[in-house]
Amino acid sequence: MNTCLAPCPVVFDLDGTLIDSAPDIHATVNAVLRIHQIAPLTLDQVRSFIGGGVDLLWRRVIAATGLPAEAHRDLVASFMTRYHDATALTRLYPNVAETLGVLADRGHPLGICTNKPMRPTKALLEHFRLASVFAAVIGGDSLPQRKPDPAPLRAAFSLLGADPVKPLGLYVGDSEFDAECAKNTDVPFLLFTRGYRKSDPSEMHHTARFDDFADLPGLIEQQSEIARA
């Protein structure tokens, strides 16, 4: 596996990693379901559907509610009209802003690689005043491929100046999609354990794991020390 020397590029997932956006996604899903007179889903249900992008989210919603599969396109369109600027209920995880500042001050190029569409991704980064922190942002509709395909993560590393074929960098995420994407890209994966994963961390590919962003700069330093050894 590739490792890096500081200050190496660090790319982050968004939902369930930097931000807890499940409450906004939950409210937006239920707003669409109300139009169709369907009983609302719980927050835990919707949280379990997050990770593979909007299309997969709605395939799971359809399966859970019994809505007709042929309504998928219209449901996604109705959802997206409300989702573009859904920020009111979303929160940064503790110590995220401070940690991003530390990494930027140390010279790490920072990026985002998410399956969330680009427009709501940018809206959230602007909402939290983080847009200027990230030199590369790849959304779920930036390329034909989505995570766990390595293409989006390779694109993010490339924008940060890394070799897209053998990027010397780190990926930080929370889900099985992120873990598999890092494995497919052959980069170390740092697993945030307070996100939206469905598996036990011991069952997931990862280089190291953490539950507090205050610990992340130290983990990144450790990876650099391993690379120097």
TrEMBL record:
InterPro entries: HAD-like_hydrolase_sf, HAD-like_sf, HAD-SF_hydro_IA, HAD_2, HAD_sf, PGP-like_dom2, PGPase_prok. It is an enzyme of class 3 (hydrolase). Pathway: Organic acid metabolism; glycolate biosynthesis; glycolate from 2-phosphoglycolate: step 1/1. The active site is at D13 (nucleophile). It catalyses: 2-phosphoglycolate + H2O = glycolate + phosphate. One of its GO terms (cellular component) is cytosol. Mg(2+) binds at D13, D15, D174. Its cofactor is Mg(2+). GO terms for biological process: carbohydrate metabolic process; DNA repair; glycolate biosynthetic process. Specifically catalyzes the dephosphorylation of 2-phosphoglycolate. Is involved in the dissimilation of the intracellular 2-phosphoglycolate formed during the DNA repair of 3'-phosphoglycolate ends, a major class of DNA lesions induced by oxidative stress. Belongs to the HAD-like hydrolase superfamily. CbbY/CbbZ/Gph/YieH family. This is Phosphoglycolate phosphatase. It comes from Paracoccus aestuariivivens. The lineage of its organism: Bacteria, Pseudomonadati, Pseudomonadota, Alphaproteobacteria, Rhodobacterales. The gene is gph.
